[in-house]
Amino acid sequence: MQTLAVRIWRGGADGDFQRYDVPRRDSQTVLDVVTHVQRVIDPTLSYRFSCRVGMCGSCAMTVNGVARWTCRTHVSKVAVNDTLELAPLSNLPIVKDLTTDMTVFFDKWASARGQFKGDKTRADDFANVVPETPARKAADAAIECIGCGVCYASCDTVSWRPDYLGPAALNRAWSLVNDVRDTAQNERLRAIADDAGCHACHTHTSCAERCPKSLSPTAGISGLKKLSARAAIRGELD
Amino acid sequence: MKPSTQAKLWYAQRISAMVLALCVLVHLVTILYAIKSGLSASAILSRTQGNAAFAAFYGLFVVAVAIHAPIGLARVVEEWLGWRGRSLGIVMLALAALLTAMGARAVWGLYGG
Ligand code: HEM
Ligand code: SF4
Ligand code: SF4
Ligand code: FES
Protein backbone atom coordinates (compact mmCIF):
# COMPACT_ATOMS: atom_id res chain seq x y z
CA MET A 1 0.00 0.00 0.00
CA GLN A 2 1.18 3.49 -0.83
CA THR A 3 2.08 5.55 2.24
CA LEU A 4 2.47 9.24 2.94
CA ALA A 5 5.44 10.52 4.91
CA VAL A 6 3.87 13.12 7.19
CA ARG A 7 5.82 15.50 9.39
CA ILE A 8 3.65 17.04 12.11
CA TRP A 9 4.56 19.80 14.54
CA ARG A 10 4.47 18.53 18.13
CA GLY A 11 4.61 20.63 21.28
CA GLY A 12 4.52 24.39 21.84
CA ALA A 13 6.60 27.18 20.29
CA ASP A 14 9.81 25.30 21.10
CA GLY A 15 8.49 21.99 19.76
CA ASP A 16 9.65 20.08 16.71
CA PHE A 17 8.40 18.05 13.76
CA GLN A 18 7.78 14.36 14.21
CA ARG A 19 7.36 11.84 11.41
CA TYR A 20 4.35 9.54 10.89
CA ASP A 21 3.61 7.11 8.05
CA VAL A 22 0.00 7.29 6.96
CA PRO A 23 -1.72 5.05 4.39
CA ARG A 24 -2.58 6.91 1.21
CA ARG A 25 -6.25 6.68 0.23
CA ASP A 26 -8.43 7.93 -2.60
CA SER A 27 -10.02 11.35 -2.16
CA GLN A 28 -8.07 11.74 1.09
CA THR A 29 -8.07 15.20 2.66
CA VAL A 30 -5.32 16.65 4.82
CA LEU A 31 -7.75 16.54 7.74
CA ASP A 32 -8.24 12.80 7.09
CA VAL A 33 -4.48 12.37 7.44
CA VAL A 34 -4.37 14.20 10.78
CA THR A 35 -7.38 12.25 12.02
CA HIS A 36 -5.70 8.96 11.10
CA VAL A 37 -2.60 9.91 13.08
CA GLN A 38 -4.64 10.88 16.12
CA ARG A 39 -6.96 7.85 16.03
CA VAL A 40 -4.53 5.14 15.00
CA ILE A 41 -0.97 6.22 15.80
CA ASP A 42 -0.84 8.78 18.60
CA PRO A 43 -3.95 9.83 20.55
CA THR A 44 -2.06 12.69 22.25
CA LEU A 45 -2.00 14.73 19.01
CA SER A 46 -4.06 17.94 19.39
CA TYR A 47 -5.83 19.62 16.49
CA ARG A 48 -9.14 21.36 15.82
CA PHE A 49 -11.96 20.59 13.45
CA SER A 50 -15.71 20.55 13.56
CA CYS A 51 -17.87 20.60 10.44
CA ARG A 52 -15.50 18.86 7.96
CA VAL A 53 -17.33 20.57 5.09
CA GLY A 54 -15.73 24.00 4.95
CA MET A 55 -18.21 25.93 7.04
CA CYS A 56 -16.91 26.31 10.58
CA GLY A 57 -13.39 27.61 9.90
CA SER A 58 -11.73 25.66 12.70
CA CYS A 59 -9.42 23.28 10.80
CA ALA A 60 -6.88 25.68 9.27
CA MET A 61 -3.21 24.67 9.46
CA THR A 62 0.04 25.32 7.64
CA VAL A 63 0.32 22.64 4.97
CA ASN A 64 3.72 22.40 3.27
CA GLY A 65 4.37 26.00 4.27
CA VAL A 66 1.01 27.42 3.12
CA ALA A 67 -2.01 28.18 5.33
CA ARG A 68 -5.05 26.18 4.20
CA TRP A 69 -8.37 24.81 5.40
CA THR A 70 -7.53 21.13 5.79
CA CYS A 71 -10.99 19.56 5.56
CA ARG A 72 -11.37 20.69 1.96
CA THR A 73 -7.77 20.35 0.85
CA HIS A 74 -7.12 17.11 -0.98
CA VAL A 75 -3.79 15.41 -0.37
CA SER A 76 -3.42 14.99 -4.13
CA LYS A 77 -3.39 18.77 -4.50
CA VAL A 78 -0.69 19.54 -1.94
CA ALA A 79 1.52 16.50 -1.30
CA VAL A 80 5.01 16.76 -2.78
CA ASN A 81 6.47 13.29 -3.56
CA ASP A 82 4.06 11.73 -1.05
CA THR A 83 5.25 13.97 1.77
CA LEU A 84 3.29 16.45 3.85
CA GLU A 85 4.49 18.90 6.47
CA LEU A 86 1.79 20.08 8.87
CA ALA A 87 2.30 22.95 11.30
CA PRO A 88 0.01 25.27 13.27
CA LEU A 89 -1.04 28.58 11.67
CA SER A 90 1.58 31.35 11.64
CA ASN A 91 1.16 34.70 13.42
CA LEU A 92 -0.72 33.10 16.34
CA PRO A 93 0.64 31.68 19.61
CA ILE A 94 0.81 27.87 19.61
CA VAL A 95 -1.18 26.13 22.33
CA LYS A 96 0.01 22.62 21.49
CA ASP A 97 0.74 20.67 18.31
CA LEU A 98 -1.61 21.96 15.58
CA THR A 99 -3.79 24.16 17.81
CA THR A 100 -3.23 27.89 18.07
CA ASP A 101 -4.60 30.45 20.49
CA MET A 102 -7.02 32.52 18.37
CA THR A 103 -7.85 35.02 21.16
CA VAL A 104 -5.95 37.94 19.62
CA PHE A 105 -7.39 37.16 16.20
CA PHE A 106 -10.98 37.48 17.43
CA ASP A 107 -10.23 40.35 19.83
CA LYS A 108 -9.14 42.29 16.77
CA TRP A 109 -12.56 41.73 15.18
CA ALA A 110 -14.04 43.37 18.25
CA SER A 111 -11.48 46.22 18.08
CA ALA A 112 -12.45 46.81 14.45
CA ARG A 113 -16.06 47.29 15.61
CA GLY A 114 -17.03 44.01 14.02
CA GLN A 115 -20.38 43.97 15.83
CA PHE A 116 -23.58 45.04 14.09
CA LYS A 117 -25.34 47.97 15.72
CA GLY A 118 -28.87 48.82 14.65
CA ASP A 119 -31.61 51.11 15.94
CA LYS A 120 -34.69 49.01 15.15
CA THR A 121 -36.67 46.82 17.52
CA ARG A 122 -38.71 43.70 16.93
CA ALA A 123 -41.76 45.97 16.69
CA ASP A 124 -40.35 47.57 13.54
CA ASP A 125 -40.96 46.21 10.07
CA PHE A 126 -38.21 44.41 8.11
CA ALA A 127 -35.58 46.69 6.60
CA ASN A 128 -35.77 46.77 2.82
CA VAL A 129 -32.27 46.32 1.42
CA VAL A 130 -32.13 46.23 -2.35
CA PRO A 131 -29.69 43.48 -3.41
CA GLU A 132 -28.55 45.37 -6.51
CA THR A 133 -27.27 48.47 -4.70
CA PRO A 134 -23.46 48.91 -4.77
CA ALA A 135 -23.23 48.88 -0.97
CA ARG A 136 -25.13 45.61 -0.64
CA LYS A 137 -23.08 44.02 -3.42
CA ALA A 138 -19.89 45.05 -1.58
CA ALA A 139 -21.22 43.62 1.69
CA ASP A 140 -22.26 40.38 -0.02
CA ALA A 141 -18.78 39.99 -1.50
CA ALA A 142 -17.26 40.06 1.98
CA ILE A 143 -19.92 38.36 4.09
CA GLU A 144 -19.05 34.67 3.60
CA CYS A 145 -16.01 34.74 5.90
CA ILE A 146 -15.78 31.65 8.09
CA GLY A 147 -13.19 33.10 10.48
CA CYS A 148 -10.58 30.47 9.68
CA GLY A 149 -7.56 32.75 10.13
CA VAL A 150 -5.87 31.65 6.90
CA CYS A 151 -5.60 35.25 5.68
CA TYR A 152 -4.26 36.43 9.04
CA ALA A 153 -1.61 33.71 9.05
CA SER A 154 -0.63 34.59 5.47
CA CYS A 155 -0.26 38.34 6.00
CA ASP A 156 3.36 39.53 6.27
CA THR A 157 2.22 42.82 7.71
CA VAL A 158 0.77 40.98 10.72
CA SER A 159 4.17 39.28 11.19
CA TRP A 160 6.00 42.60 10.97
CA ARG A 161 3.73 44.61 13.24
CA PRO A 162 1.66 42.40 15.54
CA ASP A 163 -0.72 45.22 16.49
CA TYR A 164 -2.08 45.35 12.90
CA LEU A 165 -5.80 44.47 12.92
CA GLY A 166 -5.29 42.18 9.95
CA PRO A 167 -7.32 41.16 6.90
CA ALA A 168 -10.15 39.20 8.54
CA ALA A 169 -11.13 41.89 11.07
CA LEU A 170 -10.97 44.58 8.40
CA ASN A 171 -12.95 42.44 5.97
CA ARG A 172 -15.62 42.14 8.66
CA ALA A 173 -15.58 45.90 9.22
CA TRP A 174 -15.96 46.40 5.45
CA SER A 175 -19.05 44.18 5.31
CA LEU A 176 -20.64 46.24 8.12
CA VAL A 177 -19.59 49.59 6.67
CA ASN A 178 -21.69 48.58 3.66
CA ASP A 179 -24.68 47.55 5.78
CA VAL A 180 -27.18 50.40 5.44
CA ARG A 181 -28.95 49.35 8.66
CA ASP A 182 -25.87 49.84 10.83
CA THR A 183 -25.78 53.00 12.96
CA ALA A 184 -22.18 52.97 14.24
CA GLN A 185 -20.43 53.88 10.99
CA ASN A 186 -18.22 56.79 12.08
CA GLU A 187 -17.28 54.98 15.26
CA ARG A 188 -16.25 52.00 13.14
CA LEU A 189 -14.23 54.14 10.72
CA ARG A 190 -12.45 55.74 13.67
CA ALA A 191 -11.61 52.27 14.96
CA ILE A 192 -10.10 51.04 11.68
CA ALA A 193 -8.46 54.19 10.28
CA ASP A 194 -5.44 54.53 12.54
CA ASP A 195 -1.94 53.35 11.67
CA ALA A 196 -2.56 49.83 13.02
CA GLY A 197 -5.75 49.59 10.96
CA CYS A 198 -6.39 49.71 7.22
CA HIS A 199 -3.49 52.10 6.63
CA ALA A 200 -0.96 49.47 7.67
CA CYS A 201 -1.97 47.25 4.72
CA HIS A 202 0.44 47.23 1.77
CA THR A 203 -1.91 45.62 -0.73
CA HIS A 204 0.25 42.47 -1.02
CA THR A 205 -2.92 40.45 -1.70
CA SER A 206 -1.58 37.31 0.04
CA CYS A 207 -4.82 37.29 2.04
CA ALA A 208 -6.99 37.31 -1.07
CA GLU A 209 -4.83 34.70 -2.75
CA ARG A 210 -5.06 32.28 0.18
CA CYS A 211 -8.63 32.83 1.43
CA PRO A 212 -10.39 29.47 0.99
CA LYS A 213 -13.70 31.27 0.43
CA SER A 214 -12.14 33.34 -2.37
CA LEU A 215 -12.90 36.59 -0.56
CA SER A 216 -10.73 39.64 -1.12
CA PRO A 217 -9.89 41.36 2.16
CA THR A 218 -7.47 43.48 0.08
CA ALA A 219 -10.36 44.99 -1.88
CA GLY A 220 -12.31 45.71 1.31
CA ILE A 221 -9.29 47.32 2.95
CA SER A 222 -8.73 49.60 -0.01
CA GLY A 223 -12.42 50.51 0.20
CA LEU A 224 -11.97 51.33 3.90
CA LYS A 225 -9.01 53.58 3.06
CA LYS A 226 -11.15 55.54 0.61
CA LEU A 227 -14.21 55.76 2.89
CA SER A 228 -12.21 56.83 5.93
CA ALA A 229 -10.37 59.48 3.90
CA ARG A 230 -13.68 60.89 2.68
CA ALA A 231 -15.11 60.88 6.21
CA ALA A 232 -11.95 62.54 7.58
CA ILE A 233 -12.12 65.33 5.00
CA ARG A 234 -15.76 65.94 5.93
CA GLY A 235 -14.62 66.17 9.57
CA GLU A 236 -16.61 63.12 10.64
CA LEU A 237 -13.68 61.31 12.25
CA ASP A 238 -12.62 64.10 14.66
CA MET B 1 -1.66 59.16 15.29
CA LYS B 2 -5.29 60.31 15.16
CA PRO B 3 -7.38 58.26 12.70
CA SER B 4 -8.55 61.43 10.94
CA THR B 5 -4.95 62.59 10.42
CA GLN B 6 -3.91 59.15 9.24
CA ALA B 7 -6.78 59.01 6.76
CA LYS B 8 -5.99 62.48 5.39
CA LEU B 9 -2.31 61.60 5.01
CA TRP B 10 -3.26 58.51 3.03
CA TYR B 11 -5.39 60.70 0.77
CA ALA B 12 -2.50 63.13 0.28
CA GLN B 13 -0.26 60.23 -0.66
CA ARG B 14 -2.80 58.80 -3.10
CA ILE B 15 -3.32 62.17 -4.85
CA SER B 16 0.42 62.92 -4.92
CA ALA B 17 1.02 59.43 -6.38
CA MET B 18 -1.34 60.29 -9.25
CA VAL B 19 0.49 63.58 -9.82
CA LEU B 20 3.84 61.74 -9.71
CA ALA B 21 2.69 59.17 -12.26
CA LEU B 22 1.76 61.97 -14.64
CA CYS B 23 4.95 63.96 -13.93
CA VAL B 24 7.19 60.95 -14.52
CA LEU B 25 5.52 60.38 -17.88
CA VAL B 26 5.93 64.01 -19.01
CA HIS B 27 9.49 64.04 -17.68
CA LEU B 28 10.42 60.90 -19.64
CA VAL B 29 8.94 62.26 -22.86
CA THR B 30 10.88 65.49 -22.33
CA ILE B 31 14.16 63.63 -21.83
CA LEU B 32 13.53 61.47 -24.90
CA TYR B 33 12.79 64.58 -26.94
CA ALA B 34 15.94 66.34 -25.74
CA ILE B 35 18.13 63.34 -26.54
CA LYS B 36 16.51 62.51 -29.88
CA SER B 37 16.98 66.04 -31.11
CA GLY B 38 20.57 66.03 -29.82
CA LEU B 39 20.24 69.16 -27.72
CA SER B 40 23.41 70.29 -25.92
CA ALA B 41 23.38 71.33 -22.27
CA SER B 42 23.45 75.00 -23.19
CA ALA B 43 20.66 74.49 -25.74
CA ILE B 44 18.54 72.90 -23.03
CA LEU B 45 19.29 75.71 -20.60
CA SER B 46 18.39 78.33 -23.19
CA ARG B 47 14.97 76.68 -23.49
CA THR B 48 14.34 76.30 -19.76
CA GLN B 49 15.59 79.68 -18.51
CA GLY B 50 12.77 82.10 -18.00
CA ASN B 51 10.22 79.50 -19.07
CA ALA B 52 7.39 79.80 -16.52
CA ALA B 53 5.55 76.69 -17.74
CA PHE B 54 8.72 74.66 -17.25
CA ALA B 55 9.26 76.01 -13.74
CA ALA B 56 5.62 75.45 -12.81
CA PHE B 57 5.69 71.85 -14.02
CA TYR B 58 8.88 70.89 -12.19
CA GLY B 59 7.77 72.90 -9.15
CA LEU B 60 4.66 70.74 -9.02
CA PHE B 61 6.82 67.63 -9.41
CA VAL B 62 8.94 68.70 -6.42
CA VAL B 63 5.90 69.44 -4.25
CA ALA B 64 4.40 66.02 -5.09
CA VAL B 65 7.64 64.25 -4.13
CA ALA B 66 7.90 66.25 -0.89
CA ILE B 67 4.36 65.18 0.05
CA HIS B 68 4.50 61.59 -1.19
CA ALA B 69 7.85 60.29 0.00
CA PRO B 70 7.74 61.28 3.72
CA ILE B 71 4.26 59.78 4.19
CA GLY B 72 5.36 56.50 2.63
CA LEU B 73 8.65 56.45 4.55
CA ALA B 74 6.82 57.12 7.82
CA ARG B 75 4.74 54.01 7.14
CA VAL B 76 7.89 51.93 6.65
CA VAL B 77 9.57 53.38 9.74
CA GLU B 78 6.47 52.70 11.88
CA GLU B 79 6.46 49.10 10.76
CA TRP B 80 10.15 48.31 10.91
CA LEU B 81 11.39 50.43 13.80
CA GLY B 82 8.18 50.66 15.80
CA TRP B 83 8.77 54.41 15.92
CA ARG B 84 5.55 56.44 15.78
CA GLY B 85 3.87 59.57 17.10
CA ARG B 86 4.86 63.22 17.22
CA SER B 87 8.64 62.80 17.03
CA LEU B 88 8.31 60.79 13.81
CA GLY B 89 5.94 63.43 12.42
CA ILE B 90 8.47 66.16 13.08
CA VAL B 91 11.30 64.23 11.39
CA MET B 92 9.07 63.55 8.37
CA LEU B 93 8.12 67.24 8.17
CA ALA B 94 11.84 68.03 8.21
CA LEU B 95 12.36 65.52 5.39
CA ALA B 96 9.55 67.17 3.42
CA ALA B 97 11.25 70.55 3.92
CA LEU B 98 14.61 69.14 2.84
CA LEU B 99 13.12 67.58 -0.31
CA THR B 100 11.33 70.85 -1.12
CA ALA B 101 14.54 72.85 -0.66
CA MET B 102 16.64 70.50 -2.76
CA GLY B 103 14.01 70.35 -5.47
CA ALA B 104 13.49 74.09 -5.48
CA ARG B 105 17.24 74.59 -5.85
CA ALA B 106 17.32 72.30 -8.87
CA VAL B 107 14.32 73.97 -10.50
CA TRP B 108 15.84 77.41 -9.87
CA GLY B 109 19.12 76.24 -11.37
CA LEU B 110 17.36 75.56 -14.68
CA TYR B 111 14.84 78.38 -14.63
CA GLY B 112 16.80 81.29 -13.13
CA GLY B 113 20.37 80.10 -13.57
C1 HEM C 1 8.08 58.47 -8.91
C2 HEM C 1 6.84 58.31 -8.89
C3 HEM C 1 6.07 57.57 -7.82
C4 HEM C 1 4.86 57.02 -8.05
C5 HEM C 1 4.08 57.03 -9.34
C6 HEM C 1 4.43 56.42 -6.81
C7 HEM C 1 3.22 55.76 -6.62
C8 HEM C 1 2.77 55.25 -5.44
C9 HEM C 1 1.47 54.69 -5.22
C10 HEM C 1 0.39 54.54 -6.27
C11 HEM C 1 1.38 54.35 -3.91
C12 HEM C 1 0.19 53.74 -3.20
C13 HEM C 1 -0.49 54.84 -2.47
C14 HEM C 1 -1.89 54.48 -2.12
O1 HEM C 1 -2.11 53.56 -1.33
O2 HEM C 1 -2.77 55.11 -2.66
C15 HEM C 1 2.64 54.64 -3.30
C16 HEM C 1 2.96 54.41 -1.98
C17 HEM C 1 4.22 54.59 -1.45
N1 HEM C 1 5.26 55.28 -2.04
FE1 HEM C 1 5.31 55.94 -3.93
N2 HEM C 1 5.39 56.59 -5.85
C18 HEM C 1 6.42 57.29 -6.43
C19 HEM C 1 7.58 57.71 -5.80
C20 HEM C 1 7.94 57.38 -4.51
C21 HEM C 1 9.17 57.79 -3.85
C22 HEM C 1 10.23 58.70 -4.48
C23 HEM C 1 9.15 57.22 -2.62
C24 HEM C 1 10.14 57.27 -1.48
C25 HEM C 1 11.37 57.58 -1.52
C26 HEM C 1 7.94 56.48 -2.50
C27 HEM C 1 7.58 55.76 -1.39
C28 HEM C 1 6.35 55.19 -1.20
C29 HEM C 1 6.01 54.42 -0.04
C30 HEM C 1 6.93 54.02 1.09
C31 HEM C 1 4.66 54.07 -0.18
C32 HEM C 1 3.81 53.34 0.83
C33 HEM C 1 3.66 51.91 0.46
C34 HEM C 1 2.74 51.21 1.41
O3 HEM C 1 2.37 51.74 2.45
O4 HEM C 1 2.37 50.09 1.10
N3 HEM C 1 7.22 56.59 -3.66
N4 HEM C 1 3.46 55.21 -4.25
S1 SF4 D 1 -3.31 42.88 1.28
FE1 SF4 D 1 -3.07 43.83 3.29
S2 SF4 D 1 -4.15 42.51 4.69
FE2 SF4 D 1 -3.86 41.33 2.79
S3 SF4 D 1 -1.97 40.18 3.11
FE3 SF4 D 1 -1.40 42.12 2.17
S4 SF4 D 1 -0.95 43.55 3.86
FE4 SF4 D 1 -2.04 41.77 4.69
S1 SF4 E 1 -11.37 36.26 5.01
FE1 SF4 E 1 -11.14 34.19 4.15
S2 SF4 E 1 -9.15 33.52 4.95
FE2 SF4 E 1 -9.75 35.26 6.19
S3 SF4 E 1 -10.76 34.38 7.98
FE3 SF4 E 1 -12.36 34.85 6.46
S4 SF4 E 1 -12.63 32.98 5.28
FE4 SF4 E 1 -10.70 32.75 6.39
S1 FES F 1 -13.61 21.50 9.73
FE1 FES F 1 -15.01 23.14 9.50
S2 FES F 1 -14.04 24.32 7.91
FE2 FES F 1 -12.75 22.58 8.06
List key phrases describing it.
heterodimer, A: 238 residues, alpha+beta, Ubiquitin-like (UB roll), Fumarate Reductase Iron-sulfur Protein, Chain B, domain 2, 2 domains, 5-stranded mixed sheet, 7 strands, B: 113 residues, mainly alpha, 3 helical TM bundles of succinate and fumarate reductases, 87% helix, elongated, binds protoporphyrin IX containing FE, binds iron/sulfur cluster, binds FE2/S2 (inorganic) cluster
Tell me which ligands are bound. Answer: protoporphyrin IX containing FE, iron/sulfur cluster, FE2/S2 (inorganic) cluster
CATH architecture of chain B: Up-down Bundle
**Helix-strand topology string of chain B:** HHHH
Top CATH class of the largest domain in chain A: Mainly Alpha
Major sheet characteristics of chain A: 5 strands, mixed
The coarse overall form of chain A would be elongated
Number of separate helices of chain B: 4
Return the domain count of chain B. 1
Helix content of chain A: 25-40%
Q: Given the helix and strand composition of chain A, which structural class is it? A: alpha+beta
> First CA to last CA of chain A: what distance?
67 Å
Enumerate the spans of chain B where pLDDT stays under 50 for 5 or more consecutive residues: none
**Strand arrangement, largest sheet of chain A?**
2-1-5-3-4
Instruction: Report the structural category of chain B.
Output: mainly alpha
Proportion of residues in extended strands of chain B = under 5%
Distance, first to last CA of chain B? 42 Å
Just give the CATH class of chain B: Mainly Alpha
CATH homologous superfamily identity of the largest domain in chain A: Alpha-helical ferredoxin
Kindly provide the radius of gyration of chain A, computed on alpha-carbon positions and rounded to a whole number of angstroms.
20 Å
